[in-house]
Each structure stands twice: as C-alpha cells, then as structure tokens.
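[recover] target loaded
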C-alpha cells in the first residue's frame, strides 16, 4: 500500500479530523470559526488541519493573518470517495450535525473579519 494511502486512512482514523472535514465540506472556513464550532484551541485545530493538508484532503488560503480552509475541490480516486462518504454517509451522525449547527451560529463573529 503506498505511503499516501496510509496517510489518507490515518487522516480518517481521528474523530477530530472527521469533524473538521465535515465542517470544511460546508465551504471555505476560517480557523477561528473552526475553533469556535468545535470548542478546541487553535494549535490543536491547526495540527489536525496540517495533517489533512498533508493527506491532500483540504486546501488553505491566506487572508491577512487568518487562514481559511476548505475540502479539496477536485479530489481524485480514493480522496473523492472518502470525502463523499463523509458528505453522504456520516452527515446524519448527531455529533456532526451539532458541529454544523454550531458553525452556522458562530461563523463570522468578527474574529477574522
């Protein structure tokens, strides 16, 4: 099994990374909004986001001092199937639904505006 495949599966092996992917499927999200929605400190969120980036599952763009992340727009092969699984298969999990609701409530409260 190629090393990149191992990295992708390890990315999906952590609940916090699944929670982040769930939110990033909503579109471009600032790190501060992710911290608020998941009630986690920025360094911990950034560590998980770095792993997801390394796995090729998310992209990042810099906007001033803030970074905005999103699920990869045009993933191929395994990446696409796994992201589709999060989008279709896992969306009904109560925790992930609650995370999306919290993101909608807390998004754009001014920390990165």
């Amino acid at each position: 099994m190629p090393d990149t495949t191992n990295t992708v599966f390890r990315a999906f092996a952590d609940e916090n990374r699944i929670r982040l992917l769930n939110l990033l499927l909503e579109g471009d999200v600032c790190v501060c909004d992710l911290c608020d929605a998941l009630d986690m400190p920025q360094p911990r969120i950034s560590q998980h986001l770095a792993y997801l980036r390394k796995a090729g599952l998310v992209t990042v763009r810099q906007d001033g001092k803030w970074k905005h992340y999103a699920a990869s727009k045009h993933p191929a092969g395994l990446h696409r199937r796994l992201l589709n699984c999060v989008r279709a298969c896992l969306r009904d999990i109560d925790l992930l639904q609650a995370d999306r609701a919290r993101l909608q409530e807390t998004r754009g409260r001014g920390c990165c505006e």
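[recover] notes: The mean pLDDT is 86.
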